[in-house]
Amino acid sequence: MDALRKRISSFVSPDKNTRKNNSGLSQYTVRSIYFDSKSFSCYAEKHEGVMLRRKFRIRGYNEMTSDSWVVMEIKRKIQARQKKYRSRVLFKDIDKLLKNGNLHKYLITNGENGTDITDAGKFMYHIKKNQFIPTCLVTYEREAYLGKLDNGVRITFDKNIRSRLYPLVSTLYDDDGLKLLFKNHFILEIKYFRQDMPVWARSLVQEFRLRNDALSKYTIGIDANREQVLVTY
After folding, report:
1. How many C-beta neighbours within 10 Å does residue 221 have?
2. Containing H/E element for 141?
3. 64-76 pLDDT, tens per residue?
4. Gap between the Cα atoms of 136 and 146, Å rounded
5. Of 87, 99, 169, 186, which is least packed with CB atoms within 10 Å of its CB?
6. Within 13 A of 17's CA, how many CA atoms are on the CB side?
7. DSSP 3-state helix, strand, coil percentages of the chain (rounded to 5)?
8. pLDDT tens digits, one per residue of 133-153
9. Dihedral sign (CA 130, 134, 136, 139)
């Protein structure tokens, strides 16, 4: 990881949403609760290689404060392409929104980071229709970098990835009982929003012999707690 940081330092800058920790690293904490059916249909679609699939999650960041907001998100994947439908709500209101579905009352809809109520409606529709329940909490620290010259490039290091099954939505920010998924590994993502990956990023892949894998933190989090899944099922 240190070698990768040094290698990309001339080409990227820390994402503005990161903050320096005690070690001087710019990062933030990502907390996601994934929803699935009682029969784990979303989990099964990933393992079966379904080309068109969706993930449903509530995501928050860092530590809980009185004005913390979370994102209701549908992550849609069609082969290698991804699209996200996102809507924001205050964390203190998320339980009430999930129960009564009153989007107009609880959604954050104004400002540049506001919400498209259509996206929120899609989220609620699928949750209710499929009777999805909170299935897995996945938490990790993320270092995020943006290209200095190629502003369409984003590189992230996701580390200290840990999970817990069947969380309450109200425990999104709790760290108790989380199981570490990787002891000696992290997940590196290189995202680019143009047709071709920049030359410096391609050379990074070649130099470090990086392998392209389709990894899902949700399914890995489920697999790490497999005994609990079997007992519950």
Report:
1. 25
2. strand 133-147
3. 999 999 999 999 9
4. 29
5. 99
6. 14
7. 30, 35, 35
8. 999 999 999 999 999 988 789
9. positive
145: Cα separation from own chain's centroid = 16
Angstrom distance (rounded) from CA 192 to CA 137: 27
> How many domains, the chain?
1
CA 14 vs CA 37, 56, 154, 158, 200: distances in Å? 37, 28, 10, 14, 17
Nearest-angstrom CA–CA distance, 18 and 158:
13
Q: Where are the alpha helices (DSSP H) in 81-172?
A: 91-100, 103-106, 117-129
Token digits of residue 132: 């999805």
The boundaries of the domain holding residue 154 are 2-232
Structure tokens given for 169: 């939505």
- CA dist., res. 202 & res. 7, Å (int): 12
Average pLDDT across the chain, whole number: 90
**C-alpha–C-alpha distance, residues 142 and 12, integer Å:** 15
